Amino acid sequence: MRISELSRSSGVPVATIKYYLREGLLHDGVRTSATQAQYDDSHLARLGLIRALLGAGGLTVAATKRVLGELDHPPDSMHDLLGSVTLHLAPDPGPEVDLAEAEQLVAALGWTREHFDQDHLRPLAEALQALRSAGFPLSEEQLLGYGRAMRAIAEEEVDGVPTDSPEAAVRYVVLGIVLVEPLLLALRRLAHADASARRFGPKR
Amino acid sequence: MRISELSRSSGVPVATIKYYLREGLLHDGVRTSATQAQYDDSHLARLGLIRALLGAGGLTVAATKRVLGELDHPPDSMHDLLGSVTLHLAPDPGPEVDLAEAEQLVAALGWTREHFDQDHLRPLAEALQALRSAGFPLSEEQLLGYGRAMRAIAEEEVDGVPTDSPEAAVRYVVLGIVLVEPLLLALRRLAHADASARRFGPKR
Fold it and tell me: What is the third-level CATH fold of B1-54?
């Protein structure tokens, strides 16, 4: 199909498709003349993925590029792959942050410190730091409760990782992590509104 | 204290403090001359809150302003307050999105549709839509599992809402929702890395 049809089928404007091509997010079509190229279903599928990562996934263009690169060139061993893939999703490194509290929580949860490097721990350290500087510290019991709940979710998800091909595994892990995050947050907010209304709302 | 000392104590640059003052995020100090004002601990506490909301909370300046307004002027009834507060945190409305799938999921979870308006449901609808357009649809069983896990977390949190003053309740709900989100996501990613390493890593 031509770029105009690719645009119609995907709902993505032509100018945006051209931007993705220039940025290397979308692979080139097969050139049929100096000004035209043919695109196929692989372009349509990739456009859906790009939109999901940039939109609901909330990734930057640079992070989207890293994730797509991981999908296109998966590492050889399942261990390297699953160990590194979350790092590609991490935001760019910010200022130094004290990891002591995060390390303590991870140890209290019984997770293995050697499974993480500093970049893995940074978002947890930053979240704990933000709670404290907002004057909203959580008790150790609350922190452990959150950790256990997330662990239960992650165990289920890791159970489902397809092991038949590295590409399928990367796709599963990357999309599972990135695209399920907004789902979890949306569900938590709705659960809050429902639970609050039941607790504090007018009696029906 | 003078603005230079407020900057030292809070770690926030003077230029940034002036920006917060101009934007109305931070209340004015007591003017002592044409060019100087005195600040106190209330400014220090508010700066911590602003940094947490803009930083880890990931809110825009406009959303931070709405949240701080809610803290400063809480509504009268606990019900109005808890029912409306999540809406102030919602991102600005985007393009129309089909709510049917989100409504179905909420019903399957046994939550009451009347407790939500469209703006509440939009993030869930968008998350489901993104999963589908990335070619990564979840089974109904998986969706229900996520919903129940988030409901359990929300119930615990609503149990802890202080009911002695509206201001305390708003502060608890807003900070609890906004600042716990990055904590949950950070814990889930670490739990993933730990669970994957145990499952697929080299035997120790």
Answer: Multidrug-efflux Transporter Regulator; Chain: A; Domain 2 (1.10.1660)
